[in-house]
Structures are given as structure tokens and as C-alpha cells.
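Long-time lurker, first post.

We've been arguing in lab meeting about whether S-adenosylmethionine would sit comfortably in this protein at all. Half the group thinks yes, half thinks no, and nobody has a model to point at. So I'm putting the question to the forum: if I give you the sequence and the SMILES, can you give me back a predicted structure of the complex? Inputs are below. Any interpretation is welcome too.
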Amino acid sequence: MAMAIQPGTSIAAVQAGLPLDPLENRILLCHATGLTRVQLITQGDRPLTPDEAARLDDLVARRLRGEPIAYIVGRREFFGLDFQVGPAVLIPRPDTELIVELALERLPQDRLPQNTPRLLDMGTGSGAIAVAVAHTRPDTAVTALDVSPDALAVAQANAAANGARVRFLHSSWFDALAAGEMFDVIASNPPYIAAGDDHLAQGDLRFEPVGALTDHADGLSALRTIIAGSPRHLVPGGWLLLEHGYDQAEAVRALLADAGYTEVQSWCDLAGIERVSGGRFAH
Ligand SMILES: C[S@@+](CC[C@H](N)C(=O)[O-])C[C@H]1O[C@@H](n2cnc3c(N)ncnc32)[C@H](O)[C@@H]1O
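Top reply:
Settle the argument with this. Predicted structure of the protein with S-adenosylmethionine, as C-alpha cells:
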């Protein structure tokens, strides 16, 4: 879908003529030119160079093919922090800030050196949950794991760029954890879309790693595995927090209750949808 943006056209004229919404026009123009938002305005009369025009043409074509803007620019803001993203990782969603807030509220608050809080993020992807917690509560020993080595490389870069201390493990769920390794909070946003769900073929999801989206089963299989395995790694009274699909809260609460968790409940996201469910394990 070639646009053929003409070099020599002023930045302001190009911005007004791009076929995307105004926010996306601005983001892609900034990315193509290296200018800030303010410079786009103050340099509005400056003509685009041939290199800038070619770059912008390519970026706009990718967006028109449906590629998420976060992959095109390689970045996404989450919990006030800047994250590198790419095709190896799910793009962190604003809804996932809820599980970060719930986890932070449930970490021990006394901040005594002998009581180092411990949090485990299972299926860390870009590192969103782990890095946000470690950045906000640097006294917490944060462990993050993922089955995808490529995702772990992105998460490691994000921890370093945000000055967050996180221990990363290459692991399929609990496999690489030592027996007896205990956490105050286990948080996870696992793949929860059922195999064959129409959403997998729509919008941004078409570009995201399939192993981050679907469990290739009924949508609950990763959630079941995490619910079954967490009691062996939770301190007495520790919390398991699980992000899940818009229609899975009741099923997840039932799985938690059947497995012996207490204080089982769900919390709503910004759209009022039950998005996170969790409970404590008393032992
Ligand atoms: C929905 S994404 C969540 C990414 C990130 N935590 C977030 O909230 O943006 C699920 C993640 O789980 C990982 N995953 C899938 N199967 C796994 C397994 N068996 N063990 C560990 N991680 C797994 C995927 O690679 C992916 O990074």
C-alpha cells in the first residue's frame, strides 16, 4: 500500500495529510524524523528529507497493514515506565496494571531487612509485571520466568533499562524453580485464549506471539497448572493473582476454591470487567 510521501513537503503538510488518526500520525512522524512532539510544531515548515520521507512511507504502510503501533516503534509505556517490545513479546496492556497494583498491595510492608518480600512473575513476556514491581518496590526479590528465550532477552533488557533488579529464569511454569523456593505473591498473566477463538485472527493479536496468547486448549489449562503448582511455592497466607479473559472469572474462582485457596475473589479492570482473580493459600 505505497503512499509515496513526497520529500520536500513540509512536516506540517505531511502530518495533516497522513491517513491515520492524529495521534498515530504524530507518533510515526516523530519516529521517522527523530523529532519530539514539540519539535514537530516548531519545525512544522521544515521540508522532509528524502530519507525521512522513505522511512515514513514504510512506517505508514506497516500501520495500514494492521501492525500494532507498539511493534512499529518498538516501545510501549506501562506503569509509567518505558518498555522495549517486539514480535517475541505480548504488548503490555493497560489492564495489566491492575495485577501490578494488587501485587504491590499484598507484598509485606514492614520493610525489615530480614523480611525481604518475594514475588514471582510467571510468563513474564516483556517483563512488564516483574519490572514494574521491582521498580516500585526495590526492596523486593523479584523472580520472573518464561518458556520463551526470546521473550526473556527482551525482559532482561527492560529490567536493565529501567534500573529494576529481577532474577530471570528460563522455565516452563514451575520446572526450573527449586523445591522449597517460596514467595509472598505469585502473579501471572498466562496465555488464556482458547484454541480456535476468533479473536486470535483479529487486530493486534494477529501480530503477537501465539504462545503468549493461547494455551492451544480450552483457555484454562495454563491457569489450572499455575493454580495447582503455586501452593508448593507460596508462604503460608501468600497470594496467587491471575489475570484472565473477560469471561473466565467465575471458572477461575471455582478452580481456586476447589484447590483450597481462601479469600477467593475477582477484581475489575478500568472497563468494569472482572480481569484478575486470586486467593491466599493458608497451608
Ligand atoms: C499473555 S503473555 C503475558 C506477558 C506479560 N506478563 C504481560 O502481562 O504483558 C503470556 C506469557 O507466558 C509465556 N508462557 C507461555 N507458556 C509458558 C510456559 N509453559 N511456561 C512459562 N511461560 C509461558 C509466554 O511466552 C508469554 O510471554
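For your lab meeting: Residues 90, 92, 96, 123-126, 128-129, 145-148, 151, 172-173, 189-191, 211-212 surround S-adenosylmethionine (CB under 6 Å). The radius of gyration is 21 Å. Whichever side wins, do check it experimentally.
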